[in-house]
Protein 1
Amino acid sequence: MIRSLKRSSALMFALMLTGCVVQKQTPAPVEPTTPTTPQPTPEQQPEPVPQPQPVPQPPKLKTINWSASVQPLVANMVQSAGVNPGSVLLVDRIKNSTNGALQSDKATDAIQNALANNGKFTLVTPEQLAQAKQALGLSADDSLNSRSKAIGLARNVNAQYVLYSNAQGDVKSPTLQMQLMLVQTGEIVWSGNGIAQP
């Protein structure tokens, strides 16, 4: 019975489809047009290609001669009376308190180079510094721009002194300030100022 119902419904559907009459549609009317003669146009000159503008030169960065800038300060510090020969010195990274970006790594390197083989101090090596930073949980890139961090790190590497340096004022001609601090007490045993040399 279900089979006959399926057949009869299919047959009924086929009959309905054949009974639908499709109405014939007429195409839209086409209007004839007459061709027009093209008007002669005056020859157009191609627009000139604009010349590229010259690229402006970037501002020249004024470089500072860090070696010449720190050498007199370091020489003065080494000659100071309150320093014990053979002491271990931690050179803190120079702090930038200027009104712009400063090459603090170059300045710190110049201080360390000026202190190398001075006969008065033994410098903390970069390897010792990295190990001490790791032991204290500081990142390797930490610049120690606070005196308390620098003194804590100096105690960890058994340094007797910390050299704290600061560049301040105009970045084109900063004033350098250096302070030699005794790690045990935090006392400043030497201080010096100088203007950076171009």
Note: The CA atoms of residues 163 and 180 lie 5 Å apart.
Protein 2
Amino acid sequence: MTSATDRIQNLLTDLRIPQIDFNTVFKNQNDLTPLEAVERFLQEYQRIKIEKQNLIRRKRAALPAEKTLQSFDFGFQKSVSKEQMLRLSDMTWVDQAYNICFLGPPGVGKTHLALALAVRGLDLGYTVAFETLDNLIMLLKTLEISKSSSRRMKFLRKADLVIIDEVGFMPLTPTEANLFFGFVSGMSEKTSLIITSNKGFDEWADFLGDATITTAILDRLIHHCEIINMTGNSYRLEHHRSITD
């Protein structure tokens, strides 16, 4: 004869409710009324459901790494303040579809800060996505012929926040520049973008190859935007370690 616990776990399976460790949930809770016991069960179910949703959001975000503001060396990188980043970490700007642009040479921490805000957004329940510009262009070019590209683009367009990393590292063809313009235009005032670029805005025409397209992209990107210009030496070069260290 099956135990009450086994019968309940079978019912949870039939109802597609996650398995719950009742011994842990109700430890030292022997004096609960029936309604309080139901409430305690539902609280645990809600906790498990939220935890699962968080894991799914993180997987779909496809962040290359999880970073935090606490792990950023503001003592080394003085062109951006901790106070400024803490203000941005309230993430209220996402609800207003504002953008953030981190501009500066390689190694100064642009991607670290972008990822820290992305992680903060995920923790607060926002839908977040990460792409390099190179991969974004690949998705846009294969949208009509690849189901995986189509699915990913649908996810990007529904996200609350999209990070586009490494803008300006490689020149774009005229077709690619137009695709990038179409993407930025479609997201404008609907979805927040975080852009990291090793080029100042005055240099964007060089890799986009067209001054008109550049103006159109920047017009939509910086209309509601926090622009953070970062300077200094590469943190990675200053703190590199050799194999024999």
Note: The mean pLDDT is 91.
